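Support case: NAI complex. Customer-provided input:
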Amino acid sequence: MQNVHYEVRGQTAVIRMDNPPVNGLSWALRSGILAALEQAQQDAAVKAIVLTGYAADFSGGADIREFGTPKSASAPNLPMVIRALEDSAKPVVAAIGGNCLGGGFELAMGAHYRVARADAKLGLPEVKLGLLPGAGGTQRLPRAIGLENALNMVVGGAVVPGAKFAGSKLIDEVTEGDVVDAAVAFADKAAAKPGPYPRLRDLKVEYPAHEAYLQFARNMVGAAAKGAPAPLKCVEAVAASASKPFDEGLRHERELFAQLMNSPESRAMRHIFQAERAAAKVPGIGADVKPRRIEKVGVIGAGTMGGGITMNFVNVGIPVVLLETSQEALDRGLATIRRNYENTLKKGKLTQEELDARMARIQPTLSYGDLKDVDLVIEAVFESMDVKEQVFRQLDEIIKPGAILASNTSALNLDRIAEFTRRPQDVIGLHFFSPANVMRLLEVVRGAKTADDVLVTSMQMAKRIKKIAVVSGVCDGFIGNRMLARYGAAASDLLNQGALPQQIDGALQKFGLKMGPYRMGDLAGLDIGWAGRKRRAAENPGAYKRVVADLICEQGRFGQKTGAGWYRYEPGKRDPIPDPEVEKLIQQFRAEQGITPRKVSDAEVIERCMYALVNEGARILEEGIAARASDVDVVYLNGYGFPALRGGPMHYAEQVGLPEVVRKLRQFAAEPGADPSWQPAPLLVRLAEQGQGFPA
Ligand code: 3HC
Ligand code: NAI
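Agent response - structure generated as follows:
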């Protein structure tokens, strides 16, 4: 029997699924379960069966590693296994602990009875992979907990603790103790009764006004889905449970499941699921590299970033020493943190007690001496090499040996920063994104001398503070901002040639981005980029080419914070209003540069902006700044509002086809006066010629 342990306890056969890490229902495991069930049926001494997981989890659902791999002709599919549970002449009890998700939950619903630990996590998260439950979940769950509750679970994909189902038809017994012991005791009692045993499929979905409710649900879900096909198909599948006989409903569910499985949106979302988990693994660093302990953190600078960074740590119980240069700056920073928490409190997502506990974990200080015992210190002071030098030289004097010294710089050379200390091996970049307490991305910048254990510690620490970490090498802007610079330049070209900010933003937002580059610029503040351009112009005066953004900034228009940027804003409002003044500045710029404007289509906006990202992403890969194309996608999804339904720029390029991307890049590069960075990256050309995608 593959992936299954079989033992008999008294008169009950206990079948334990064993397919680490989460008992994904691979073809081998499915075959194993069927074989074990058969053995239990044959054994006359066995009167009842318990199905459970070998380790903590029941099952995390379909084995995601098998998605897209050829089907084994002889392997039973999940509905067959579930059918075998239902048809068992001996009562089957599912003993549910840990994760019981997706196909795993559907499997449990095929048992005659379910015993769950109070803290077991039950859910149908398929929608988060652009799918719907495809093994009867949409038909059995409404029969067990009602149409509305089931619809919420299927469409929302949320995980619900076992305790919540006490007293429902879904869970027959909730236990705080050993779930297998409880299930065996339950099974013994069940076996004392004659069959046939209860099956969820035989229940009726009770909901008198279901059509009116479903119509309401379709409207709500359709509006919230933002073009994602899965949520509405989830509603359709659940609706079938109320309107069709069970087996017909099951067939309908299966058809919808197959449609979604082949949809580009689901492919993109499954790609991202795997990409986010792959990003946590650093090639070349083995499991033997042990992380350092992080129990106390120091943060230097209580400004926009320092405050948000501090919140990440105190939110998960890690105390922070927060250092500033003046009492006033310190008070301002603390007040902002408190205000953020108070807003969360007002929304009912935080208690006063927890708010106080989090604030109490922050130790404000003006003295470096208070940083003596921190295990990690993160610098978030002004973006100036001189200021960073001062800070790192001081830190080097004070911080205990073995502590990690991190910089939140957005673009400065980390290797230079490391040289300000006598321990460059302990220096790393931890590039948080604004707002740092909200954005999930963390670029972990590996310097030339960063020690492996410092990198491993940072990756684990990221998980602890609920961030998604991606390793980047050292270069100007690291992965995300370096690509963003090319994307911004492509948008800027379009602006010069005839488009307006609102057209460019509109086209990209229709494509799925949360915000186009001009709205994003206004939100982040245009002065940061302007300072960077001025720095580069000063470093290399001959090479600097003026851009429209310079004219905008020269007017003191720095975005939302000054009430005007690429758009104008009503006082206190954040809605961007197209501004004729901006159009005039753009026209003035075109006149200065001798450009005759032309009509730009929305399709061209997408092509230029996306392929600029892809081309720079490919260079970043070639240079080894990013380890995998999927890491680049993770950066763009979690840091830049790239739509999950597109799977990230590199995945999008593969879907378009790399030969087509290369053809377009060549076309852009051949235009008179084109920026040389339109030349396709050699890696892209090679992969396109070989008919390959990006290496995994
Ligand atoms: N199959 C195979 N491997 C899986 C898996 C699955 N269903 N779910 C998670 N894993 C793997 C991850 O890839 C990761 O592997 P790694 O260590 O090699 O990187 C490992 O398990 C741990 O995963 P996480 O890092 O995500 O660990 P967490 O503890 O944070 O989360 C989890 C565990 C809650 C199970 C989370 O991984 C999860 O949500 N998994 C997806 C569950 C899901 O979507 N199931 C539905 C699948 S579709 C389906 O069942 C179709 C059916 O309706 C027919
Ligand atoms: P900020 O100006 O809001 O805050 C900087 C804070 O550092 C100020 O409160 C200042 O008083 C303090 N400070 C200055 N010198 C100091 C010193 N020697 N010792 C202690 N404190 C000192 O700046 P912001 O936006 O928080 O940026 C900080 C760093 O984070 C910069 O390196 C920036 O490039 C980077 N960053 C900024 C992002 C953003 O969107 N704002 C995003 C990602 C990184």
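The chain has a mean pLDDT of 96.

Case will auto-close in a few days if no follow-up is received.
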